[in-house]
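re the bet — no i am not wrong, look at it urself. input seq straight from the record:
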Amino acid sequence: MEQHPLQYFKDLILRNKITKERLSFHTTTEYGKVTNRDYANGTIEYAEVHGSNEDDLVIENVTITFTTYLEGKINEELFNSLDRIDNRLLEIDDEKKQVLYLKTLYKTLNTLILYADELEHISKYTFVAGSLKSLKNELTEKYAVHDDATQQQHINLSSAQQTSYKLQWMGKSKVLITLFYDLYSNVENGGEPLIKATKDQVKNFLLNNFIEKDGQPLSASSIDTLLTPSKEDKRALKDDRIDTSKFKDKK
């Protein structure tokens, strides 16, 4: 199946693949021999050698930021996207179908630009939205097909759309929910809870911030059951349970 010409940007923005790009940055060798990788600050250092013979060689440590790396990757993918769009239009021999294809692309671009401007994980990289706007402008000028759609101004994220930006719990969901039950109750800690919250607050926090290891939302009914004090038999067993007693402040 042919890849969508904007697939890279769809993955980056809508599927939050920024983590994958960050990993690629820290493992890259395209700049030369890496001498230091600073994961916390998002930088790498590599040795750059200047000089033509052994006597006048100068070794300079150069620092590259993840932002610089990502901007270069965005520019590269823009050219790739434009090539794919051009090639696809050459394959379409009907002018009306060409116009329809471009207007469909504009709709996708509008969505990507909107999300790139507003979603927390990507909005700080302002050049992402800017590059997509430039791509759209180039297409409208090159093919004289304008976007007659009204662009959405703000995101109204449904719970399904927000799933991609939640933390993925890779263990048993029962263990996670039991952990939060133990943190907000005093059953395991024998005294004051480690977090002060109501059952509903804990439930909403879990639903809004975590997904299952298969990418599915946590079950609201399971959370209700496991957070009920009388349902101890439903919660994680001792061997699976995360021990929260060691977190208690010993006075």
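see?? Residues 35 and 46 are 5 Å apart (CA to CA). told u. also The mean pLDDT is 83. so pay up
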